[in-house]
């Protein structure tokens, strides 16, 4: 994705956070569209890297595109 996916897709806000689990923390990122106001529908995206390939950075452009085109967090 990082090599072929969308790049430089502007969003209103991108916030990094972690999710605590029994096996350790999982890094995550939340996106919001430009001019987002009030409650919005939410999409939770898990990339299919099999816990081996892929990262927040490799799928950042795709998730930004989902946010902009879908109008959701």
Task: Give a quick rundown of the structure.
The chain has 73 residues and is of the alpha+beta class.
How are the SSEs ordered, and which strands pair?
Elements: E1 13-19, E2 26-32, H1 60-70
Antiparallel strand pairs: 1-2
Query: Can you tell me the overall shape?
Result: globular
SSE class: alpha+beta
Return the average pLDDT rounded to an integer: 86
* Beta-strand content bin: 15-25%
Helix count, per DSSP?
1
Rounded Rg: 13 Å
Order of helices and strands: EEH
Biggest β-sheet description = 2 strands, antiparallel
Q: Count of DSSP E strands?
A: 2
Amino-to-carboxy terminus distance:
20 Å
The portion of residues assigned to helices is 10-25%
Low-confidence stretches: none
Strand numbers in spatial order across the main sheet: 1-2
How would you portray this structure in words?
By secondary structure, the chain is an alpha+beta fold. It has a two-stranded antiparallel ribbon with strand order 1-2. A hairpin with a 6-residue loop joins strand 1 and strand 2. The protein is globular. The mean pLDDT is 86.
Keywords:
73 residues; alpha+beta; two-stranded antiparallel ribbon; 1 helix; globular
């Amino acid at each position: 994705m990082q090599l072929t996916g969308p790049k430089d897709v502007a969003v209103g806000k991108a916030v990094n956070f972690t999710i605590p689990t029994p096996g350790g923390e999982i890094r995550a990122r939340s996106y919001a569209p430009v001019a987002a106001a009030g409650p919005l529908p939410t999409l939770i995206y898990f990339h299919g890297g099999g816990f081996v390939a892929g990262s927040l950075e490799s799928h950042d452009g795709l998730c930004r595109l989902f946010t902009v085109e879908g109008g959701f967090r």
